Amino acid sequence: MDRFAAMEAFVRVVESGTFTKAAEALGRPKAAVTRLIQQLEAQLRVKLLHRTTRRVTVTPEGMTYYQQALRLLGEVRELESTLTQTRRGPRGRVRVESSGTISRLLIVPALPSFYARYPQMQVELGVSDRVVDLLSDNVDCAIRGGAVKDESLVARHLGDLRYQFCAAPRYLERHGPPRHPQELAGPSHTVISYFSSPSGKQLPFTFNREGERLEVQGRSLLTLNETNAYLAAGLAGLGVMYAPRFVLEPYLASGELVSVLEGWQPDARPLFLVYPPARQRDAGLRVFIDWVVELFTGRTNL
C-alpha cells in the first residue's frame, strides 16, 4: 500500500463527503479510492469512516487521523513546492471561483501579467455567482462579495464594492426618473431584482443618505441571480437597477444607462478572497493569492 496515496485519498473523502467526488478530485477510479481506504483501515486496525448508501461520516478516530494527515500532507507539499520553486519557479494548477463580472472585467484582463511572472502556472477559473463549497468542489480559492459566514475559511479583504442606481433612457422615457426610493414600490416604477442563490430570497434595494437608511422591496417583473444577465436586463429598459460602479462606468459614460436617485447610496459590499487554511501551504496558490491581493490594492473604482 502506498501510504501517502491512502492518506491523501482519505483526506479527500472526508473533505468532499463522498467516494465519488474524492475519486474525481484525485483522478482515480472510485474502486481504487475505496481499496486504499480499506487498506489504510486494515493497516491501522481502526475504523476511520462510517459508510452507508447515502453518506460517509468520520469516526472520532478518523477525525484525529484526518487532522494529523492534513498537517503531514501539507508539510510534504510545502517541502516539494519549496524545492520546485527554488529550481524553476512555482508551477501547477489553481482552481478559482469568481463571479462573471469580476472575472470578465478585473481578473481575466490582468491574467497576462500573472502568466508573465509565473509562466508554469495554470488557472482554472469557474465563473458563477453561485457560492460553492470549496472543499467538496475541490476549489482552491474564491473571490466573494458580502460577509464570509464560513469560519473555517481564511478571508483576505480585497476592498469594498460601491454600487450605484441607474436605468436605461428608454425606461426613463416611459416612466420618468424616480425622485424618492419609496416610488419604486408604487405603480409608476419597476425594479430589476436580484435573488440569493443559496436562499432563493429576493434582495431588497437599500438606500443611504446623510444617516438615513431605507429598505424598499420594489415592484419587480424580473428577478435574476447572475450579474451579467442582470446588467443586460437594465440595458433593455426593464426597470431601475443597481450594480457595482466598475461594472456601470462604461455604460454611464456612453449614455446607455443614466444615474438616478442622486444622493442616495446603496449599501457597499466587502469583497474577500477566501481559501481553506490547509491549502495555503501550496506555493502555487500562495503566489496566486499574493497576485490577486496586489491586483486589488489601491483600486478606487470598485
TrEMBL record:
<dbReference type="InterPro" id="IPR005119">
    <property type="entry name" value="LysR_subst-bd"/>
</dbReference>
<dbReference type="InterPro" id="IPR036388">
    <property type="entry name" value="WH-like_DNA-bd_sf"/>
</dbReference>
<keyword id="KW-0238">DNA-binding</keyword>
<keyword id="KW-0804">Transcription</keyword>
<dbReference type="Pfam" id="PF03466">
    <property type="entry name" value="LysR_substrate"/>
</dbReference>
<comment type="similarity">
    <text>Belongs to the LysR transcriptional regulatory family.</text>
</comment>
<feature type="domain" description="HTH lysR-type">
    <location>
        <begin position="1"/>
        <end position="59"/>
    </location>
</feature>
<dbReference type="InterPro" id="IPR000847">
    <property type="entry name" value="LysR_HTH_N"/>
</dbReference>
<protein>
    <submittedName>
        <fullName>LysR family transcriptional regulator</fullName>
    </submittedName>
</protein>
<dbReference type="InterPro" id="IPR036390">
    <property type="entry name" value="WH_DNA-bd_sf"/>
</dbReference>
<keyword id="KW-0805">Transcription regulation</keyword>
<dbReference type="InterPro" id="IPR058163">
    <property type="entry name" value="LysR-type_TF_proteobact-type"/>
</dbReference>
<dbReference type="Pfam" id="PF00126">
    <property type="entry name" value="HTH_1"/>
</dbReference>
